[in-house]
Design brief:
Layout (H helix, E strand, L loop, with lengths): L2 H10 L4 E3 L6 E5 L3 H11 L8 E3 L10 E2 L3 H10 L4 E7 L5 H4 L4 E5 L4 H10 L3 E2 L14 H8 L9 E2 L12 E4 L6 E4 L5 H8 L26 E5 L15 E4 L11 E4 L4 H17 L4 E5 L6 H14 L5
Parallel strand pairs: 1-8, 3-6, 5-9, 11-14, 12-13, 12-14
Antiparallel strand pairs: 1-2, 2-7, 3-7, 4-5, 5-6, 9-10
Helix pairs in contact: 1-5, 3-7, 8-9
The structure holds threonylcarbamoyladenylate and magnesium ion.
The site of magnesium ion (MG) has 3 residues, from loops.
Length: 320
Amino acid sequence: MSQVELAVEALRNSGLVVLPTETVYGLAADVSDPGAVARVYAVKGRPANHPLILHLAAGARLDTWAAQIPEYALGLAANLWPGPLTLVVNKTDRVGGYVTGGQSTVAVRVPDHPIAQAVLTEFGGGLVAPSANLFGHVSPTTAAHAEQDLADRLIPDVDLILDGGPCEVGVESTIVNCTGPAPEILRPGTLPLSDIQQAAGVALVESTDPTIRVSGALESHYAPAASVRLLTSAEQMRPDPSLRPRIGLLAPYEIPTPAGVVRLAAPRDELEYARLLYASLREADALQLERIEVIGPDGDSAAVRAIRDRLNRAAADRPS
Ligand code: TXA
Ligand code: MG
């Protein structure tokens, strides 16, 4: 059997499948299987009130899962799916409350990855898939990252890890709330706001509702074990020479690496920065570095905002 056939068989038997997508790796389960979905929460160590994203095959009927879909959301779906975009819409009875944390809305996305699409198409139904990391940790952008976090919590011969190589995008999808009169960005991703605006056909509104549960909205999230310090320029790097071998630097390529400091990545543009971000944070932990000094990318494109958002969370104070 092919990897895709094995994955579909595992999902039909209530197994979990680590699945590559274009953004980050997901931990997939059959949306219609309450026991499998419960295991997704248990394996991640994720609180039950943090809802999951429903993943669908390209061309799947959205109205099976979503009700009262506004015109602008249909525009977003038609123009930007498959792609790194998640739409929050009102759910139908087909989506159990165990998926949405009891909310009447569901987050839906059609991933743009050949393996994810092959599994979804062959499976035929919907798959929940949160990022395949332990709750609060950095999202995985390779199969090995997901394995590091989850391998000893998965069940051999029941669950499966599919390896699709490193993820193209590297940060999670843009989440857009489509339950109001106009689209509202709940989680920034790399999709340009002008593309979202154009596909929606109406102006975006600023996010205002603090009660909407976006787990990434927790202060400390996407965090490595090493401490993360955000700098605005290389001049701010004045590490004690004795500490240098324990310090990593993530910064745009034009920033030089001080002697003795470990360069984690030197991305040439913001999309490469997004692609390398999580792998760099994980690399720092693999090297047992004490601290990661970070200089973010310049500008205010969607990708730059998405990177800053994840960096701020990685640098936020941790609950002890
Ligand atoms: O790129 C992605 O979106 C990846 C890949 C695997 O598809 N998935 C992902 O899932 O990032 P997760 O579970 O790590 O993040 C899902 C986010 C959470 O912050 C959750 O709170 C939010 O989506 N969410 C899910 N359902 C929602 C809803 N009904 N209303 C508002 N936010 C929702
Ligand atoms: Mg996540």
